[in-house]
Amino acid sequence: MSPDDTPSREASEARAIALADRYLAVRRRTESLARPLSPEDQGAQSMPDASPVKWHRAHTAWFFETFLLTPFLPGYRVFDPAFAYLFNSYYEAVGPRQPRPLRGLITRPSAEEVGAYRTHVDAAMVRLLTTSPTAEVIERLDLGLAHEEQHQELILMDLLHLFAQSPLEPAYRETSPPDRSAATGLRYLAFEGGLIEIGDDGPGFAFDNERPRHKVYLEPYRLADRLVTNGEWLAFIEDGGYRRPDLWLSDGWAAINEQGWDAPLYWRREENGAWTVMTLSGRRPVDPHAPVGHVSYYEAAAFAAWSGRRLPTEAEWEAAVRAPEGQELRQTSDEAWQWTASPYGAYPGFKPGAGALGEYNGKFMVNQMVLRGGAAETPPGHTRPSYRNFFHPAQRWAFTGVRLADDMS
Ligand code: AVJ
Ligand code: FE
What we know:
By secondary structure, the chain is an alpha+beta fold. It is built from ten helices and twelve strands. It is 36% helix and 12% strand.
C-alpha cells in the first residue's frame, strides 16, 4: 500500500496478473485433458445427454465471450457470430441453439479451429483481466472458471461413455488402479443432529444453488465412513437384487426393466463368469475393494433397501462433513459423487439472479436428485462441503457412488 492507503500501481498490477494466471491455468487444464484425443475422438457424441469434447472446449470459450468479453471489454469482436447458435448450451435469454442431442453433427468448426477460438478468447480475457478487473468482472470470472471446471469433468464422463461404445474399448490414459484392499472395514459414525446450518458460508466462490445458508433440523443419524464397494454390489447382484421388485421404487423398477439393467453401467460379465468394467484406463477386472461407480439413484436406493439402510439426506451429509466427528469419514470427495435422498430444489429464500446467468442452476430445480462430495475425476479444489451436484434419478454416466446412512436405533 502507498502512504495514502490506496493500492499502489504495483499492487493492482500484481493482482491483475494473478487473476490472469488463475484464468490461464484453468483454461490450460481443459486443453491438456483434450490433448491425447484425435479430432475424430473429439467430434463424436455417444448419446443425447453427452457432448463431443470439441463442443465442451468451444462452449466454455463461448461462456467467457458471452458473459464477460461482450459486455465488459470495450471494442471486443466475437470470433464468429455463428458460434452463438452452435455453442449456447441452454440459455433461453441468449437465443436459439443447436439441439443438445444433435451436437455430434457439428463437424465444423474443426477441432483445430476450436483451438483458435479458445486462443482468441484467452487473449481478450487477459486484456480484460489486466485492464479493468472490476468486482463484477471478478465475480463472473469465478463463475466462468467454476463452469469450465464442471465441463472438465463432463469431458471425462462423456469421453468414457463414448469409448465404452467402441468395440476397441480404448484407454484414454494408462494408469494402474490403486490397491485398496487395506481400506475395506466399515464403520457407522454417529451424529447427534439437532438444529444445524447448511449452505455456503464463504468467503470463497460458491454457486447460487448453495445459498442462502439456512437452518435444518436433523434427528440423530449414522453415516457409513466409506462408500459402498464393488464387492458389496456383487453380493446385491448375486442375491437377486435386480430381480426383486420389493427393493425398488416404482419408477426405478420400470427403468431397470425397460433398460434391461442388471449391473452398474460399464460392467460386463465375461464368459468365465468374472465381471469386468470399462474405465478411462480401458476395460479392467472389477475390484471388489473399490467403490462402486456409475449407478443410478434408483439402483442406489434399491441397494440401500437391500442393506436395511437408507441414503443420507444432503443436510445429513453436509452436517457430518462439517462436524468434528466427521473428520473420520473417508472418501468424502476423492472417489465418487454420492447420491443423497434429497430432491434438487431451492433453499429457503433462494432467488435466481437476473438475466441469462440466472438460468445457470435455478431452472433445473425439479425432478433431479442431489449428489454430494466429488469424484476422482473432479478437478482439484473444485468442490466444498456445501457443493450440490445434481442428476436425474435414472442417469448413471456421471461418476456416481453410494454412501449409506442409518437411523440411530
Ligand atoms: C451440475 C453437472 C449437472 O452438466 O449441466 C455445466 C454443470 N452447468 N454447464 C450440467 C453445468 C452449466 C451441470 N451439472
Ligand atoms: Fe455449460
